[in-house]
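step: validate -> pass
step: tokenize input -> pass
step: predict -> running
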Amino acid sequence: MGKSGKETKILLAGITVICLVSFLAAGGIAMLLAKNFQKGLLYRDCGAAGYLLNHEEEPAVSAFTAVPEEKDLERGREALASIGYSERTPMQLLPAVRAYRNQAALYLFLLPVFLLGAVCLLLFLYLRRQHQIFEDAEHTIRGFLDGDTMARIECSQNGDWYSLFHAVNEMASVLSAQAENQRQTKEFLQDMISDVSHQIKTPLSALKMYHEIIESHREDAGAVSSFIQKSQREIRRMEDVIYTLLKLARLDAEMIRMEKDSETVALLMQDVLERFETWAGREHKTIALSGKEETVLFCDALWISEAVGNIVKNALEHTKEGGRITVKWSQSPLMTQIEISDDGKGIHQEDLYNIFKRFYRSRFSTEYHGIGLGLPLAKAIVEAHGGTISVDSVPGVGTTFTLNFFSLTDE
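step: predict -> pass
step: emit ->
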């Protein structure tokens, strides 16, 4: 407020100075115009008086219509000077000159007053408009600071201030995005901690119980051996949870640098097959590979193998004995595509929107498989390669996961 008042005083002082200078200039110009008018009037009167004296026989009207000669001017000047009428005669003694001077001064005073008034009016309207714009901008900014993250300054027009407002809006958008990201991150961490606590609590409780049983049955070697094996199984389960979560956390934080190279897809899929063929054979299930040998994918071989392996593992868990899992790949100028299909029980429509959520477990499934992190990890790996993953499933018929990788050059 103090700064605004100071600026107003400076503006008023400037206007006052301009008014004074304008009035002084108007007075000076009025005097100059009156002086020139006096000279012109004297010239006319000298010519008329000299003409009348030199041409007494001519009509008097000719003195005011004829062009005066030098001799007429000289004689008229002498005649008028003899009665005190010359260039040195004060204007106050000449009514016509005095009236002309006063009229000129009035006009010259009114003109700057009118112009200055118009300028002041326009300036007032402009400043009021600017004040309203800044007041609205301040109100919007305060609303944003109070929590209205959608508040934006109106900046539909052109100009320096609107360019500034546009930059402020961009900054507000960035801050809103960061705040939303932080909120989502906070919610994710809360959910993650809750899920991890639940996943770790169960095996820890089991380990505690197994330990108590072993302590109370030390003499029973068979029981001790059985519960040691169960304890090891729970430990492996906790290891799976912890290691998978660490991988996901590193992928989320972009701490993993993908060692990408041109890899043969057939070899990658063969590696996945070898990892699961014993499991598949034990349950009389078939894993079939289909695709061109020369297909190449620019990727990190270890991570892509893990992503595909997690999907194949999920298919094995949800396929009945004697089922078939097919891994096929194809390539076009635009992208490389890998499909993992099975003829299992399929996925309920409601679950299709949630299967990539961490620790998600379907309410339609009564079977217990895994920890609910395999598919989320596969999705994170594919997206870290700039790819996409989608799923299509028909309950009772089977499920197909599709991985698409755009055919880009080395990054």
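step: describe -> The chain has a mean pLDDT of 82.
step: cleanup -> pass
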